[in-house]
């Protein structure tokens, strides 16, 4: 029987089974994760474990999370092990690389390899629920073979703090000699199911005593090492008095490591003592030598900060009658876990809301608020030590039915949009039916929550205001929704010291607010032809438009003729810079490069470009279909798609046309704002920009992503040097190799490239009525590309498997 609380998941299997080698029961992963595609294959490798013959891949979403709920709950210590074996299951030319997270914190990056990788971490849970997440950062489709959780005793592996975890580097049985180096000791021999690999050196001499009876469950063996491991040991060869080991890791960063030495005296030597000294990286950490007692296990540990290597030397102490021995040892890296999970009260409340309304948002996986670049769609959170949900925008979900009392449990809410007229009504009833009888209407519920929040914040602040002195370089940012004075803007930008961009609405400067948070400050030009009609009210409106694929407007200045917008700062610039930073002009048929060329950026592989397209489509879909009334961008182009430090794309400058001037109460303006090359051809005849105008511009962006070419060439004749005129003849000839950006050097999936080009062409007919809605474009980008991958990568699969996977992807 497995140690109480084991969670064993075989990713991709469809049935529960008992592992023949360990006796552990494995479950399918369907109850632990949403989305993904199952693959069954038989790896042509020395590995034969059943868990390596299936896997689940996640081609659509950026983050996919397994939800683990161990019965021991929070403040308990767990060993978590994730196994990845690609084995060429998809016949791809290159295996993927992706990140794995434990809750809100980064754990490791899985490298590009077809080999077997096993990652282990010892983690003290801060919440009852543990999220294990795979994050796509653009270098291939994440996948996983198996996931295991094992409860550990609280008395071992001394990391009581939630802010640290131990990432497994090596765990070695150094005395075993009768099993293959490809084998290892696990459960049932090890009650915690740790995997003990074989390690041997020429300067070590192995010996064993299989007849001794070591009490592996007694109080003297808190680490509960398997008797099979403790009954074997090494000692120095006749040529040496010491046991020396050196583990090398080439890194530019210093890490703190924990080394655990496990001893058990297995030789009965009456009247003779075995006394030992230990140094790690040349330094002794023992206050006095250790003396081993017969059949009494002993574990000694130490921490060391180093960059390149961990070495240890075990030597006989003065007065020792016997040489030193070692039975086993472990090396772990201390991994910081700086982010606390989102407050459990908020997590429970938002999940209750999700379940109450049957909200099926596949992106709602893992921690709702953290890491911040993966915050749930429709939420905005504080960045305090323990994140809290401060804004909920579910207006695009068109919710109906009773109003859940769970909304009132989000006690830190600062803004709540209620664009869901169906809420509070059931069936054809005209009278609202509420879960909370004391609340007479949805508006009353919202007012009660907001009055409570405002009152509490006023009490906690005690009337404190924002004070700025002449010597101040940082401006406090108490709220993301606030107005700045022009004096504050001067301090934020250090008197407009650093220009980071120019746009149609003005110059953009780098700024700094509270806690050295960088912002982008767009100082609006006073000579703008649009003027400043309704600027303040529109700026305030834009500040409550929140989506992870829209650049957040966190403040504004509206003081006399001085007007500015303060945005979150995007560290990786804009898409136009990325595409043109290594420019190739091919319109004339000849190839020429710009003067100083950087290395080919790996992050601009086709997978990255497709993800950028998906990100931008999410943002545009929210503007068109998630905002009431819809927001028409009117100037979609590559320079208005910004990239953060994780290369996540966000749309900028949305809604600015209305912030300046408009001809009606809608967000459809008759004033031109488009950029040549991206501007809707129908504008010249209809003098009107609408949703389909943005879709046309988005299609041009897709072509730029695939081809690497600008919307317009270097000539002045737009008709002859427009990207459509360049690409259409090549498409008609089926010449995809000369369509795709040559910087990809042929490393792309042809089916995927064709599909993106098809989507782009569907967006760019001259007649607007022939163009799709952006929601359909987003669906095509997410699902059709995934289906193309399925068909392209699984020639060996039977039709039922492919059909089931197509159904699973389409259902999302």
UniProtKB/TrEMBL annotation:
UniProt keyword list: ATP-binding, Kinase, Membrane, Nucleotide-binding, Phosphoprotein, Receptor, Serine/threonine-protein kinase, Signal, Transferase, Transmembrane, Transmembrane helix
GO cellular-component term (any): membrane
GO MF terms held by the record: ATP binding; protein serine/threonine kinase activity
Primary location: membrane
Protein kinase domain span: 494-785
Pfam short name (any one): PK_Tyr_Ser-Thr
Transferase in keyword set: yes
Transmembrane segments: 434-454
Membrane topology field: Single-pass membrane protein
Binding locations of ATP: 522
Location(s) in or outside the cell: Membrane
Zinc in keyword set: no
Alphabetized PANTHER family for the sequence: OS07G0107800 PROTEIN-RELATED, PROTEIN KINASE DOMAIN-CONTAINING PROTEIN
Designated name of the protein: Protein kinase family protein
């Amino acid at each position: 029987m497995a140690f109480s609380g084991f969670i064993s998941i075989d990713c991709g299997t469809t049935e529960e089974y008992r592992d023949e080698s360990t006796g552990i029961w494995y479950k399918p992963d369907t109850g632990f994760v949403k989305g993904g595609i199952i693959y069954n294959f038989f790896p042509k490798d020395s590995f034969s474990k059943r868990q390596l013959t299936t896997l689940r891949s996640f081609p659509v979403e950026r983050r996919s999370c397994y939800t683990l709920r161990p019965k021991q709950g929070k403040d308990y210590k767990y060993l978590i092990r994730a196994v990845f074996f690609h084995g060429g299951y998809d016949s791809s030319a290159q295996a993927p690389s992706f990140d794995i997270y434990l809750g809100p914190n980064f754990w490791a990056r899985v490298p590009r390899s077809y080999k077997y990788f096993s990652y282990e971490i010892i983690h003290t849970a801060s919440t009852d629920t543990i999220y294990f997440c795979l994050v796509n950062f653009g270098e291939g489709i994440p996948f996983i073979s198996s996931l295991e959780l094992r409860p550990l005793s609280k008395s071992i592996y001394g990391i009581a703090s939630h802010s640290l975890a131990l990432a497994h580097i090596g765990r070695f049985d150094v005395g075993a000699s009768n099993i293959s180096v490809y084998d290892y000791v696990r459960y049932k021999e090890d009650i915690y199911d740790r995997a003990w690999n074989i390690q041997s050196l020429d300067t070590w001499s192995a010996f064993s005593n299989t007849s001794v009876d070591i009490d592996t469950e007694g109080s003297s063996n808190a680490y509960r090492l398997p008797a099979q491991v403790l009954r074997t040991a090494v000692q120095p060869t006749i040529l040496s008095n010491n046991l020396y080991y050196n583990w090398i890791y080439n890194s530019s960063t210093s890490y703190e490591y924990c080394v655990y030495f496990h001893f058990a005296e297995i030789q009965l030597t009456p009247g003779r003592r075995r006394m030992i000294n230990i140094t790690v990286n040349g330094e002794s950490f023992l206050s006095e030598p250790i003396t081993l007692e017969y059949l009494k296990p002993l574990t000694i540990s130490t921490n060391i900060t180093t960059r390149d290597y961990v070495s240890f030397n075990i030597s006989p102490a003065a007065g020792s009658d016997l040489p030193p021995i070692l039975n086993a040892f472990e090396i772990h890296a201390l991994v910081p876990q700086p982010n606390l999970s989102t407050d459990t009260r908020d997590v429970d409340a938002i999940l209750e809301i999700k379940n109450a309304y049957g909200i099926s948002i596949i992106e709602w996986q893992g921690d709702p608020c953290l890491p911040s670049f993966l915050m749930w769609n429709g939420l905005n959170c504080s960045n305090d030590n323990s994140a809290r949900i401060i804004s909920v925008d579910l207006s695009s979900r068109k919710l109906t039915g009773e109003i859940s009392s769970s909304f009132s449990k989000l006690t830190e809410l600062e803004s709540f949009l209620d664009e869901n007229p169906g809420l509070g009504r059931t069936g054809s009833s005209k009278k609202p039916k509420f879960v909370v009888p004391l609340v007479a209407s949805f508006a009353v519920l919202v007012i009660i929550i907001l009055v409570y929040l405002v009152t509490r914040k006023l009490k906690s602040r005690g009337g404190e205001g924002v004070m700025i002195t002449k010597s101040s370089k940082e401006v406090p940012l108490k709220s993301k929704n606030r107005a700045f004075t022009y004096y504050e803007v001067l301090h934020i930008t250090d008197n407009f010291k650093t220009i980071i961009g120019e746009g149609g609405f003005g110059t953009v400067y780098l700024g700094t607010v509270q806690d050295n948070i960088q912002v982008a400050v767009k100082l609006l030009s006073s000579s703008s032809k649009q003027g400043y009609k309704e600027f303040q009210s529109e700026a305030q409106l834009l500040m409550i438009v929140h989506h992870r694929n829209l650049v957040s407007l966190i403040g504004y200045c509206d003081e006399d003729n001085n007007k500015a917008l303060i945005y979150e700062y995007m560290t990786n610039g804009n898409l136009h810079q990325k595409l043109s930073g290594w420019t190739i002009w091919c319109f004339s048929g000849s190839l020429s490069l710009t003067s100083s060329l950087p290395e080919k950026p790996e992050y601009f592989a086709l997978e990255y470009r497709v993800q950028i397209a998906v990100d931008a489509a999410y943002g545009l879909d929210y503007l068109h279909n998630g905002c009431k009334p819809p927001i028409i961008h009117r100037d979609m182009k590559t320079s208005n798609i910004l990239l953060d430090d994780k290369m996540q794309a966000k749309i900028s400058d949305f809604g600015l046309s209305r912030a300046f001037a408009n001809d009606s109460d809608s967000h459809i303006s008759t004033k031109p704002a488009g950029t040549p090359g991206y501007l809707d051809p129908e504008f010249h005849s209809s003098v009107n920009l609408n949703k389909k105008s943005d879709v046309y511009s988005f299609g041009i962006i897709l072509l730029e992503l695939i081809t690497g070419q600008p919307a317009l060439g270097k000539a002045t004749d737009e008709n002859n040097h427009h990207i459509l005129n360049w690409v259409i003849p090549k498409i008609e000839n089926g010449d995809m190799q000369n369509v795709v950006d040559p910087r990809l050097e042929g490393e792309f999936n042809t089916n995927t490239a064709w599909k993106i080009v098809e989507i782009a062409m569907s967006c760019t007919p001259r007649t607007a009525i022939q163009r799709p809605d952006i929601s359909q474009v987003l669906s095509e980008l997410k699902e059709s590309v995934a289906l193309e991958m399925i068909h392209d990568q699984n020639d060996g699969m039977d039709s039922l498997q492919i059909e089931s996977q197509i159904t699973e992807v389409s259902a999302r």
